[in-house]
Amino acid sequence: MAAVTNGKPEQATSEIDPVWLSSRTARQIYALGEVEKTDKPEDHMPQGEERSEQFVVEVSEYFERLDAIHMAIRSSLAHIRQARFAPSTINAPDPGFVPPPLGVGMRGADASDHDPTRTRGFQEERVERDAWKGILDALTRIKQARDEDRRKKDDEMQV
């Protein structure tokens, strides 16, 4: 009677060569050799010589596709490598250059120029721009309020 392991019937131990039963490792190696059949009756694969020919055709198509992928990857990498900048074209910063604390800024033409407005980053420039816009808006509202007060006083004096 065949034993059942993992829901699959095993061969009777009398059918197995005793060498494969001599140790746990031998039994595991024997179990690895028992591969399920992958061909199903509904696959409609040809039999005999035609089957071998069909296998060769499918494997050839697979390797052609794999080769095309391989060549596409290699050519893409070659284009990327060619498009890169040479390290010698990248200029190092001047020895006395101190990077801005908040973001990237533009370096002045003169490295000895220590004007704080030239070493500010973009974020700092935006904050300053917004502050000036706020000041302009506040002064415009004050001027409009004063102009309106003057008109009211002029209207009251004429009445």
From TrEMBL:
Q: Which intervals carry biased composition (Basic and acidic residues)?
A: 34-53, 110-126
Chain segments carrying region Disordered: 33-53, 88-126
Q: Which domain of life is it from?
A: Eukaryota
Q: Please identify the protein, giving its name as recorded.
A: Mediator complex subunit 11
Provide the species name: Gloeophyllum trabeum (strain ATCC 11539 / FP-39264 / Madison 617) (Brown rot fungus)
